[in-house]
Amino acid sequence: MLPRTRREFLADVGRGMLVAGVGSATAIDLGLATARAADESSEPLAFGTLEPLVRLMQDAAPESLLPQLVARLKAGTELRDLVAAAALANARTFGGEDYIGFHTMMALSPALAMSRELPSAERPLPVLKVLYRNSRRIQEHGGHDSEVLHLVPSDGRGAGAPADGAALLEAVHRKDRDGAEQTFAQIAKNGAEQAFNELLIAVQDNSEVHRIVMPYRAWDLLDIVGKEHAHTLLRQSVRYCVQSESEQYSTSCKGGRDVLPRLFDQYKLLSKPLGRRQADDNWVSSLADTIFGSTPDQAAEAAAAALAEGFAPEVVGEAMCLAANQLVLRDTGRPAEQARLPEKPVGSIHGDSIGVHACDSANAWRNMARVSNPRNTLACLILGSYQVARDRLQRLGDFLNWQPYPTAEHREHVRGMTPAELLAEADAAIRDNDQSRTCAAIERYSQEVAATPTAGSGPSEHGARPVFDLLLKYAISEDGALHAEKYYRTVADEFAMTRPAFRWRQLLALTRVTASSYGRPAPGLTEAIGLLQS
Asked: Do 419 and 446 touch, CB atoms closer than 8 A?
């Protein structure tokens, strides 16, 4: 190898300075940097103007990080910039391969959305709660010195081979992480939208909750972080797909692998435009019941048949999410053999419960269907319906015979009459971990405030804002076993998208989960409150 000339050396220095200024993801797109793989000898990722804040998120212990972040907020730093830096620090540190790490990434966008529902003085709280969790896990992982994402190498392997979703899936099946990374880096050069759609081909191969929710939450973060970082955020899902392909537990989730091509062919779905046919309440309720009560194959076929008949994807997605909602409302709680951790006791339904996982997955499928290409829209709704039915059969639950909350017996214990009394009763029941009375009180509250629906679909238009305010308080104050922020956002989202006849079911489910999770305060929150008040 010939030695570099002075001109070549100075050119490399200049290129390096430019890459540091614009960020490595943008540099790859501009052809200023070569995509490199995630091995110890490869070049580090850099994030341009956000880099100092990203490094702070990686280097500072949580106790020292919070004072610095609050000081920055008081000096004018935007809350969304803290979330963007935390997302990039999380991705660079964990690469989608650490359980607590990727759950924290998935909580960032929901936490920022929660902040918008709060008075201005309290808005940083849900974000600071998640940033504390993020920093603590990064430090446990080894901080900046243990980051796993680097630039992806272009070593010539696969030159001339197609870079698309099929090639990405093939690399996943081979458990070839480097090959999958290189393929996805090539795909990502064509923009965020194509990267997302091609990634979904691999994601859809295995309907496991984290495999589904992770790419949606990463996509949701792009409005905060910027699409120039799409490759960094979405490649976490590439690595997760490869990792989960290697784990024995994932084999139970692969039943949908053969369902999709069969239904595409049977109903000739790929040769038809997406339908626009609307549905009445009875039709949506009937499809939801079919998805909930069927085998996974039958549920997938019910969704495919509805799409083939020209029903709009939105109404099929609504039915799918209502079916998942039943898994929260009907859950009898963790039995003793599944309550192995003190934060998830017998009878609890928060955290990684069947229902919470199912609802977060269905919401992710529904939202990915809304932003992807027609092929993926169909696939998301068919596989999402498959997954809801499969989730009903998990952990030997008898959901078809269990009754949804609140039952007639639960309603007998409610004493409040006015909306104010019922809210106070629900608040007290949450503090008693009384899921049934909380749910019954909020159901009666919904009946008291029932009115002719307006053109709006938000909480205020349907008298639900005071209930959301009550539940938001606890979604922030309680730890939630990694799921509080995501599930609150899932319910808020579904409430807004669901028709008036059914939307309160989503809120009743959140009341149960809130009562279940109470009593386990979130680490770092007391410090954050004190810093904001000082």
From this structure: no
pLDDT 10s digits, 422-465: 999 999 999 999 999 999 999 999 999 975 455 456 676 679 99
Query: Taking Cα atoms as reference points, which of 457, 510, 501 lies closest to residue 284?
Result: 501
Q: How confident is the model at residue 196 (pLDDT cuts 50, 70, 90)?
A: very high
pLDDT over 70 percentage in the chain: 87
Whether 128 has a pLDDT exceeding 80, the answer reads yes
Complete DSSP assignment for 443-503: HHHHHHS-----S--STGGGT-HHHHHHHHHHHHHB-GGG-HHHHHHHHHHHHHHS-TTTH
**Contact, 512 vs 405, CB < 8 A?**
yes
How far is Cα 148 from Cα 130, in angstroms, rounded to an integer? 21
Distance CA 30, CA 24 (A): 10
End-to-end, the C-alpha distance of the chain in Å comes to 61
**Contact yes or no for 198/165 (Cβ under 8 A):** yes
Task: Considering the domain delimited by 165-250, tell me its CATH architecture.
Answer: Up-down Bundle (1.20)
Q: What is the pLDDT of residues 393-405, one digit of tens each?
A: 987 789 999 999 9
Number of neighbouring beta carbons within 10 Å of residue 8: 11
Task: Characterize 183-221 residue by residue with b for buried, 16 or more Cβ atoms within 10 angstroms of its Cβ, and e for exposed.
Answer: bbbbbbeeebebbbbbbbbbbbbbbbbbbbbbbbbbbbb
Residues 349-365 pLDDT 10s: 999 999 999 999 999 99
Hey, CA dihedral for 18, 22, 24, 29, is it positive or negative?
A: negative
Q: In angstroms, rounded to a whole number, what is the distance separating the alpha carbons of residues 449 and 267?
A: 44
Give me the pLDDT at residue 243, please: 93
Q: How far apart are CA 63 and CA 21, in angstroms?
A: 30
The domain ranges of the chain are 46-146, 165-250, 258-396, 408-517
Q: What are phi and psi of 341, to 5 degrees?
A: -115, 145
Closest alpha carbon to 275 in 314, 226, 317: 314
State the burial class of residue 100 (Cβ atoms within 10 Å of its Cβ: 0-12, 13-18, 19+).
middle
